[in-house]
Amino acid sequence: MSQESPKRVREESNSLPLVVLLILVGIICLFLFVGWKYVSDEPSTISELAPTTPEEMLKNLPEEKIAEEEEDLPSDGLVTDAQVEKMATPEPAPKPAATPPALPANSTQFTHVVQTNETLFSIATRYNISMETMKKLNPSVEPNAIKVGITQLTVPVQSIHTVGPGDVLRVVATKYGISVEQLMKANGKTKNFAERGEKLVIPFAKRQ
User: Fold this and answer.
1) Within 52-151, where are the H helices?
2) Is residue 100 part of a domain?
3) Taking burial as the number of CB atoms within 10 A of a residue's CB, which of 46, 151, 166, 175 is the most buried?
4) CATH number for the domain including 183?
5) Which domain holds residue 38?
6) What is the pLDDT of residues 83-109, one digit of tens each?
C-alpha cells in the first residue's frame, strides 16, 4: 500500500493541467462565439438606427414638406449627404413684416423735400411736430446727413387744403383752428396771399 500511493498522487497531479487547459480552451471558444454573434448582428442594428432609403427618411418629415422632398429624390433610390442634411435641417421661420410707425390721429401724410438751410429741427418746427415724432416716422434719416433736394421726409399734417373762391389765408386758418402765421410758415409764404387752386399744407394747432 505504501508504494502505490505516491504513484497515484503523481497521476492525479499530471491530469490537473489537462483539465485547466480544457477549461481555458472552452472559455476562448465562448468568447469567439460571442464576438462572431455581435459582428453578425451589427449591420442590422445600424440599418435600424440610420435609414438610408427615401421612404424611411420621408416618414420623419412634416407632411407639407414630403411632396417637395420627393421631387428631389434620385430615381436610383440613393440619398446623398447633402440631401440628408437638407431634410434634417428645419426651415427658418419667416420674419414678421415691419409695422410702419403710426401717424398721429386725424392726420394726413405729407412728403417734404429738404430745402436750402433746412434742418430736421426746423422742418419739425415748421409743421408743428416734435423731434420725437419726426424721428419715429423717419428712422433711417440721420439728422446730420440730410441732403438738399434729395432727402425726403414723411411729415404728418392736419390736412391739405385746396384754395377755392374767397379762400384768403385768414379764412383758411380760422377753418382749421390755426393762426395765419402758422399757415404761412408751414407753406413757406412771406406774403398773406393764396391763389385759387393752390394746395396749402395745414399744420397742427398743437405740437404732435
Assistant:
1) 54-58, 63-72, 81-88, 120-126, 131-137
2) no
3) 151
4) 3.10.350.10
5) 13-88
6) 656 666 666 666 655 555 566 677 899
